[in-house]
Amino acid sequence: MIKSVGQCLRLFGLAWMAVSVGACSTPQGASSIEPLSNVRLQVQRALTEHALHNFGRGKDGYAPQAGLLYYDHRFFGTTQYGGTGGNGTIFELRSTGVTRTLYSFGKSPDGAEPVASLVELKGALYGTTEYGGANRTGSVFSISPDGKYSELYSFGSGGDGANPAASLTALGGALYGTTMNGGKYGEGTVYKVTLSNTGGAMETVLHSFGFGSDGAYPASGMIPLHNVLYGTTSGGGGPKSESHGTVFRVRPDGSEAVLYPFDCVHGSAPLAAVVVMNATLYGTTSQGGEACSAGSGDGTVFALSSGTEEHVVHPFAGGTADGDDPVAALIGWRGKLYGTTYTGGVYGGGTVFSVTPGGDEVPLHPFGNGTDGNHPAGAVVHVGKAFYGTTSGGGLYGGGIVYKLTF
Question: For position 9, what pLDDT does the model report?
Fold first, then answer.
């Protein structure tokens, strides 16, 4: 069983499967998905793409798995590998394409292999590393926009969590996050980081996954809504043969509830955070869909409304037009949802797509053509009249790119 986002993305075909895709029964009260023949897949409408930066040359890092943070008229991001220390980097990018490395991971007891996006709180940037730290099971760090770095917390002490693969969430002046492993039952945690005025931090485990029909192995960050945090787990949620992941909520006091357990036909193994649009939660599953009975399925876009009512907005079909294996979160803009698929599309290197709440899905850009990037693992960011994002591979040097898509 794979319990690492880094390992998951390295093995993508998707050979990931942190859970079995055996039974495909529909939970009571859940709506069945629309047959693929009725899904309105529109013809591809290409956007103009421009590579702002090509990773993999020199010490700038390579294989960015996370999306970008836009702050103070600049983009900030991470690469999983490379840099002067070999364990990844934090970089800054101007809209003109000028890039500089703010920090290279690799110093002991430094964190290693960041795979999550950065977040901003009170002018500082915060993030996580999946490995490294004092116990080699991940860390929480801060960095100023001018490059002043501080290691805040190392995971792996006692019943603590381990291997944070998700972005942090700011709520009420504190930071909240998830770990894929560790905790009381070994299947991940929700944690809180309280920041001190002196630059230190205290970590508290709010919830340990893996008890009963609870979720397991959360790979995604969480979103705040009315002082409650919502997230997904990549596994758990039912008997081991039906552990396809969950959507959950957790309050700042640590009380947690599973809102929806996936069943393969409605999606399986969600690796990304949910997003709210028009009082409905939307998200992606990296596997599952109507093809799950014949295999793992190519993933879905799903909607969760009225607390626990879930339906599939779009089941991905792979092939040459539609993408498959969405591992990144969606964003909402002008009544539509926008996202990426890790594979599929015309060239097999993934896509950027749009989808309406009614299920009209349009592949907007296919990756993998020549020196184009391929395999986007992070979400797109909308700034002005363009989308920005990263690919984990491809480009001039094979180490991925930062791209800009204009309408």
Answer: 55
pLDDT at 197: 81
Asked if pLDDT for residue 326 goes beyond 80, the answer is yes
What does the H/E/C string look like for 54-98? ECCCCCCCECCCCCCEEECCEEEEEECEECCCCECEEEEECCCCC
> Are residues 406 and 47 in contact, defined by beta-carbon separation less than 8 angstroms?
yes
Residues sharing a CB contact under 8 Å with residue 106, sequence separation 6 or more, in sequence order: 83, 84, 85, 86, 87, 112
pTM above 0.70, yes or no: yes
Distance CA 274, CA 257 (A): 16
CA max distance for the chain: 60
Task: Evaluate the omega torsion of the peptide bond into residue 14 and state whether it is cis, within 30 degrees of 0.
Answer: yes
> Residue 130: which pLDDT band, with cuts at 50, 70 and 90?
very high
Burial of residue 100 (CB within 10 Å: 0-12, 13-18, 19+) is exposed
